[in-house]
Write a structure and sequence with these properties.
mainly beta; Hypothetical upf0131 protein ytfp; five-stranded antiparallel β-sheet; 2 helices; globular
C-alpha cells in the first residue's frame, strides 16, 4: 500500500517536523519539490490542504518510502496516527490520506499519498503563497487572507 510516494506540505517537512514524528520523516527519501491544485489553510501550528480547482497551488516536497515493505507500512501507520487519520473511520479523522497527482518540478505527474484536511476550515486564514514555513506564519503582516 505504501509503494506510492508521499507529498508533504506542512509539519511533515524536514526541519518543521516536531520531535514525535521527526524520526519517521528522517526515514523517507526525497524525490523533489512538487505542487498540486488546492487551498492551504493555516490552522494554528499546522496547515490543512483542501483540494480546489487549479487556480491555487500548494507547494511541498515528495518523498519515497524505504524499499522494505514492512518498514514502509510501519512508517505509513505512524504518519496516519500523527495526522489523525483512521483508515477504518474516515469520518472521524482530522485528515484523510488519498492518492492524488502531484506535479514535480520536472513537470512529471506522480500519484502520491496526500493528507487532506477533513474538517470545515471555518475562518482559518488562507496561505496565498501555498507554502507553510512555520507556525509563526500567522504573525501580523504575513501573506495570507482572512
Amino acid at each position: 500500500m505504501s509503494a506510492h510516494p508521499l507529498f508533504v506540505y506542512g509539519t511533515l517537512r524536514p526541519g518543521l517536523a516536531p520531535a514525535e514524528i521527526a524520526p519517521v520523516v528522517a526515514e523517507l527519501h526525497p524525490i523533489g519539490e512538487g505542487h498540486l491544485p488546492g487551498t492551504l489553510y493555516h490552522l494554528g501550528h499546522y496547515p490543512g490542504l483542501v483540494l480546489t480547482p487549479a487556480t491555487n497551488q500548494v507547494h511541498g516536497l515528495v518523498f519515497q518510502f524505504p524499499p522494505d515493505p514492512e518498514l514502509a507500512a510501519s512508517l505509513l501507520d505512524q504518519l496516519d496516527l500523527y495526522e489523525g487519520f483512521y483508515p477504518n473511520s474516515p469520518a472521524d479523522s482530522l485528515f484523510v490520506r488519498v492518492l492524488h497527482p502531484v506535479t514535480l518540478a520536472t513537470g512529471e505527474l506522480l500519484d502520491c499519498w496526500v493528507y487532506l484536511f477533513n474538517q470545515p476550515p471555518g475562518p482559518a486564514p488562507i496561505l496565498r503563497s501555498g507554502k507553510f514555513t512555520s507556525a509563526e506564519d500567522t504573525a501580523p503582516g504575513n501573506s495570507f487572507e482572512p
